[in-house]
Amino acid sequence: MPNEKNLIPFNQRTESEAREYGRAGGIASGASRRRKRSLKEAADIYLSLPVSDRRRWNKIARRGVDPEDVDNQMAMIIGLTEAATMGDAKAAKVIIDLLGDAAGEDDGGVQIIDDL
């Protein structure tokens, strides 16, 4: 491994060096958490927006979904459901995982056995 001599364990560093590196790591960790949180918030905002394509909106509304519930999140769930019913195992797994999270693990939810 190149530059092995540059690797110094923390127990061999001075207390001030260890504190300095720990502080820098904490700052980087906080920045990463904020970036991930803002990405999650952006996705949540976009998914809650109403469907802008009139054809897609009408298709969803014809399925009996209340007009106020027709948003991008509902369109995504309907797309996953359609894919799962057509035989897409990954889409089915995503839906089952979503339902498992909503129902809780101890509610007797669906269990998938992978080794069959």
Report what the structure shows:
The chain is mainly α. It contains 4 helices and no strands. It has helices spanning 15-48, 54-62, 72-85, 89-103. The longest helix has 34 residues, at 15-48. It is elongated, with a radius of gyration of 24 Å. It starts with 14 loop residues before the first helix and ends in a 13-residue tail after the last helix.
Could you give a quick summary of the protein structure above?
With 116 residues, the protein is mostly helical. The chain is built from 4 helices and no strands. It is 62% helix and 0% strand.
By DSSP (H or I, 4+ residues per run), the number of helices equals: 4
CA-based gyration radius: 24 Å
User: Low-confidence parts lasting 5 or more residues at pLDDT below 50?
Assistant: none
**Spatial gap, N to C terminus:** 44 Å
The level of helicity is: 55-70%
Mean pLDDT: 84
H and E string: HHHH
**Total E-strand runs:** 0
Structural class: mainly alpha
Oligomer: single chain
Largest sheet, described in full?
none
Q: What percentage of the residues does DSSP assign to strands (E)?
A: under 5%
Shape: elongated
Topology diagram in text:
Layout (H helix, E strand, L loop, with lengths): L14 H34 L5 H9 L9 H14 L3 H15 L13
Helix pairs in contact: 3-4
Top keywords for this entry?
116 residues, 4 helices, 62% helix
